[in-house]
Design goal:
InterPro entries: Ank_repeat_dom-contain_49 (IPR051637), Ankyrin_rpt (IPR002110), Ankyrin_rpt-contain_sf (IPR036770)
Pfam families: Ank, Ank_2
CATH class of one domain: Mainly Alpha
Oligomer: single chain
CATH architecture of one domain: Alpha Horseshoe
Structural class: mainly alpha
Largest sheet: none
Distance between the termini: 62 Å
Protein name: Ankyrin repeat family protein
Number of helices: 13
Helix content: 40-55%
Keywords: ANK repeat, Repeat
Number of strands: 0
Radius of gyration: 19 Å
Low-confidence stretches: 1-5, 180-196
Amino acid sequence: MESEKSSAQIKDKDLFKAAESGDSSLFKSLPEEQLLKSLSLRNEDARSLLHVAVSSGHTEVVKILAAADPSVSGINSGDEEGWVPLHSAASSGNVEIVEILLSRGADVNLKNDGGRTALHYAASKGRAKIAELLISHGAKINAKDKACNLMLWTTHLLEKFSMVKIIFESKGVHNFLLLVLLTCDIGRMHPIASCS
């Protein structure tokens, strides 16, 4: 009874602090109904508790929140810039969190407001293991962002050669001309990656 009373007094801001600091004990102490209700909370950036825990790298809190969500709506819910938890996990490089999100139905091809997918972020930061995971879950390797940048071109420009190798080894690249373009280091992307 005392536990239920104390958990009922937990404020939204305290839940966000717990997600950010990794206080899994607070989330474990919540009654199921309150935990489920907390999944719809958003902070000033329109980020959910799950998103905050993912961005802060707190695997245990991510596990609790992801398991509490009976749908994939929270897993695929974007903030005010369209970032979903998978974008943040791929960008920060937390393989275990990426695996959790994928196992709960995260959409690997969702784009944020800049048109970037989780694979764009993994590739641009040289996160090879995460890129492999995303590709194995159906990430589109030829996706363009709003600036018409192909994820492949971005990785090449950033000299992430191990990433380029992973992408070319996947079954999605069949464009020999693109391979020639990348290996010859032509400075402009003419017809292959045009934004038409």
